[in-house]
Structure formats: structure tokens, C-alpha cells
Amino acid sequence: MKPVDGYKFVDSLAEVTSYLDKDIIERSLLQTLTEYADSKELRLYRVIENDANVGLALMAYSKGKVIDTLDNEIRNQTLPDRFNEKIQEAIDENIPTIVMPNESDKQYHIIFPASNRSKSVFAVLIQSNDKINYRNQQLIHAMLKVYSNYLELIDKSCRDKLTQLLNRETLDSEITRILIRNNSTESNILKYPDYSPEDKRKSLKNSTFWLGVVDIDHFKSINDNFGHLYGDDILILVARLMEKSIRDYDSCFRYGGEEFVIIMLANEQQTAKDGFERIRKEIFNHSYADLASLSVSIGYTQITNQLYPADVIEQADNALYYAKEHGRNQVQYYQELVDKNEIEANDDEKIEAGDIDFF
After folding, report:
1. Which residues carry out catalysis?
2. 21-25, 203-207, 263-267 — which is least confidently predicted?
3. What CATH number should be reported for the domain holding residue 15?
4. Spatial distance between the Cα atoms of 246 and 53, rounded to a whole number of angstroms
5. CA 41 from centroid of its chain's CA atoms
């Protein structure tokens, strides 16, 4: 292990906690650990399920001088069988565990759990090396505690206080990130580490991002007839139903009032429509106290080469307005409405992708 310069190490901690973007935080974390800990390889996984079998999604890794965070995490990556029991042990006990070398693999693999304040493990870091260094382990474990605590503070600041969904400011940042990625020449380039020869993301390989604005129909009358406290209860319940209806790699935001936004990954327009329809049906088929029924209208668009987050929202909002003007309780796709001359295209669509310069 390299000697630790106290000033430089504190400065590295400050670097890790100076960003709000999760990908940059992960890269900074691995950069610091690579600098101070003797590691052949580091892999950071998110825990996506912890029932009978642990489900992991690879978020970032470092090997040699390569440090990479993944635009779309690699889910359900297959690890060698001897890892599974040790990963489960690390998660259950919330302590580092060691996978010992064998004939085919001469390295030690140390599994570090990252937990939040409620002691729930949300991620694991696997360090691979030729030997065990206990000071090294203490350093990594301490850094993961800083990482976990900081992520929890960020998450709290990114949440809407009423519904606990992601808030509007976070939505703007996420759309901006997607737009920049879409207009980058490296947006489809992804390096893969070596554990599994198979790309487990095949279903997402050619996926793009789609944004839908969800509006509760006749919400004003709910507030007028039952009061704002009941209206707040409806907002919270609808938020939970939407979270239940989306997949783990989709995102749900409170946009304001009775409006929400969903960003989902889909490989084609019909898949995106099916996803938004699933949300609409889940809300419509649910039983509500004091209400005969509740419905939502949804307008959605593809996030492609729009100039600004507001342009993406405006497209979805135009489709939403059409849905509300034509019967409510339905899903409408912006581009389809434009193609049918039901609504006019936004002016910014005349700009080609090659004309966009973010800097």
C-alpha cells in the first residue's frame, strides 16, 4: 500500500464530495482508491435485489489505469459461483468478506458492503489483488462510508418533500445529461470488464430515453370537494403506484402540482408506449377511498437532439394537452400527433443534430 499523505488524502475526500453527479462521484471514488490502495481491479455494483439470490448491477470499475463509469449499468452480470455466498454474507452481515484464491484464480477478492444510515446495503465494492493488506481494507471501508453518507445527503436534497420522488431540479439535470450524451460521438462506446463474456444488457443495447408527462385528471375538483390534505394523499398514492409500475432503471419525478414526469429506457416507440400505458392502467384500476375512479393523461416524446430540457418537456406537454382535450385517461405520442397534423411541431426541430454545440 502506498504511504498515505494526510493532506492529500483529505483533499481527495473533499474531491469525492465536491460533485452532485453520481457518475462523477463514482469515478472520483475509484480514482482515490486506485491512488491509495494496491488493487489489481475494483468493481462497484449496485444491489438491485436481495431475496433468495443477490442481484447486482455493475456501475463502475477500474483496472490498471482505466477507470470507467457506465452510462447504462450492466444488470444481472454473472459472477463465478464461489462469489455468490460471500456476497450474500457481506450483505447480510454488513462486513467485508474475502473470496480466497483457487487453482484457476490466484487472486484474493475482498467484498465491501456500502450501507445507508438504516444499515441497508445498497452497493458492494469488490477489490481484487494478489495479497491481503489489512490497512488497505480499512482505508477502502472508510472511503465507502464517506461515499454512502454523501450519496444519502445528495438523495435527500434531490427529493420532493411531499411525494419523495425526484424533484424538478434533478429532472432538468438528468435531461441535460441525456442530451449531452446523445450528442457525443462516444455516446455508444462502452468498455466492458472481463467477468462475463456475455453482454447481459442485450434488451437495452439499442435503447433510447423517452420522457412522459403524467397529469392527474380533474385534480382541482378533488381538492375542491375533499380538501387539500386528501389531495396530498392522492398525490402520494399516485407517486407510489408509478414507482411500482416502472422498472428499476427508469426514473420518476414530481414536476409540480398534479404533474409528474417519467423517464424510461425503451428500444422502440411501441415499447415506450406500452410502458406508459402500464402506468395509466395501474392508476386507473386502483381503488381509492371516496372516489369512484381516478385517471391520468400522459403525453410522451423521445429524448433525441433537442436543444434544452425545456424543449423536451414542451413536446411531451403538447401531447399531454392533446390527450386532455380529447377525452383524458389516454396516452399520446408527440411525434405521431405531428405526423398526423394533429399538432404543430416545435420550432427547434428544424435544427439538425450536427448543428448542436453545447460548449
Report:
1. 258
2. 203-207
3. 3.30.450.40
4. 22
5. 24
